[in-house]
Amino acid sequence: MRGAYRTDVSSSRQKATLLIEAIVPAPLATPDFPARPQGRDWFVRAGSSGGDGSREKPFRDPFQAMEKAEGGDRVHVAAGDYFGKVHAGEWRIAIRNLMLVGGYTADFTARDPWANPTRFLLHEEEKAKPGRPEGTILGSEENSDGLVLDGFVFDGATWNTYKDGSIDLDTSPLAPLIDLRGGRAPITVRNCVFLNASSGAVKISCPYGAFENNLVLNTSGSALALHADGPGPWTIRGNTILFCSDPTSRAGTGESTNDGTILHLSGRAPVNIDSNILAFADNFGVRCTLPQPGVSFTNNVLAANLCYQLSDAKYLWADDSNWERSVVGDSAFRALEGNSFELPQLPVDPAFAAAALARLSKLSSHFSAEEWKKIAERVGTTVTLDPPTTAATPVAPSPPAETPAAKPSLNDLMARLGQPPMRPNIVRPLTGQRRWISFWRRLRLRPGRIANRSRSRSAPLPKRKRQPATCRSPPRIWMLFVRSSMAMRLRWT
Predict the structure, then answer these.
(1) Domain 41-378 is of which CATH architecture?
(2) Please, how many CA atoms are within 13 Å of residue 167, restricted to the half-sphere of its CB?
(3) What are the extents of the domains in the chain?
């Protein structure tokens, strides 16, 4: 904010004036975090036995190193499949400033997370046990301040239950693959793969951090749920997030809050969303309730999202058609440069792409048949759309043939003579005593209504007249309640 402070005011009561000339967003400032402690290195290799965590004698599973590690330590994990303590498929972080790094070769001389997958899985014996698995592979027991998670594969397929070729949500986990929280130092997740989540892939609650160069595929629920309630900033950069589904009947309508949403952002921290591919969401590409002046969208691809590309859940509901008017023209985001709605060529498995597009094309969306064909070409498959059903032209029913009127017979005439005469339904206005009788019938002698009526000044009391015996009871009851209400007033005074 830029302005001037003036004291040359001609007023005995006003001492000074603040003149605001311009208000512009402040540059993103990274807070000064305390120096990261330097700890020791631990090594893990699948199939090892009797190790002590050194490079020469590594542990057999990351949980052994995590139990012995202290703040600032680094755990190096070689490629392989890991199942956790007693094959439970769970790993919990109980210390701050821990670094988990995967993707090493067996001798720890080279590292490439994409060529050397380090996978966290659930063992078949544990899955065979009755009950629903918990599902959170990696979670925080305490605040995971300063956590660095780099180069792992979290595949929910071994936790899920499948039936008739699709996931069975009645027996699959109801928790995200990873659930992390922090407070005083950033959380960093990079170079990781999240697959086949049954109830959300990634959930992070931390004031600042980074989510970079990750791959999130085939998620039921929300792909990344970020709650950034703090000074920030957060960086979401270089990720590819595809196929985020809504398992409910609201798929494609935008009526769900979390399900079918790629990025679900909440809190108040500044967030920089840059160079991501966000595609194939049932409802929202980005659902952002953060303050708009602190959020920037740059160089992202938002494509093939069925309902909305961007929404703030209040006033902004933008898709391809109204992006320029609603987002660029009417919103207050920090930056909106370089975004595209054209889906790039993606190397997706043809069988998976065909099954996914067969489902998506049947949901409610704003894409035409030609647009669906172009989308299918971008993922290396084809899509067969059901032909539009044309309603048959209704044929007007032919009018029934008129039957000649039959002549009245002697029997009909005698039957009519035996019926009582028909009287017209005449509504007569209620006047005088008839009006008071109708009033008491509608009132049904309810004391509460009579007391309220007695206090009304606009309705004068009726004059006492000589009335028939059938109409004497209502005025007497009326005066009874009037006297009781007067007695109540005198008692209060």
Answers:
(1) 3 Solenoid (2.160)
(2) 22
(3) 41-378, 444-453+469-488
